[in-house]
Give the backbone structure.
Amino acid sequence: MSLDLKDKRRRIGFSYAWNGIKEIYKTEYNFRIHLIAAVLAIVAGFTFHLSNMEWAIIVLVIGLVLMAELINSVIEKMIDYLKPEIHPSAKIIKDVAAGVVLITAIIALIVGLLIFLPKLDSIL
């Protein structure tokens, strides 16, 4: 395999991935809400001068929430494609996928409170 082909494949793969993220951003309101929350957490992190460990944890939970939202969107779109009519099993699959996002977001909120509340406490 030539070097040109390898480079072309990487660029194309990245391009598809970026297109998918842009599509979810445009079509999924909850993904945009999670992005806003992520930006707020990052701004708060700079404001409170987080340690490297705290940054690592914040970045990890932000990534987990965004990944959960992307996976949830994929599952919903697949179910809609495979089973466009309303079906009880399709509803359960979608609800469970949404539950994954909810649990991930709750964990991220708890982590955020554990990191930021003591910092707020020290300035009040």
In short: The radius of gyration is 19 Å. DSSP finds four helices and no strands in the chain. The chain has one domain: 3-123.
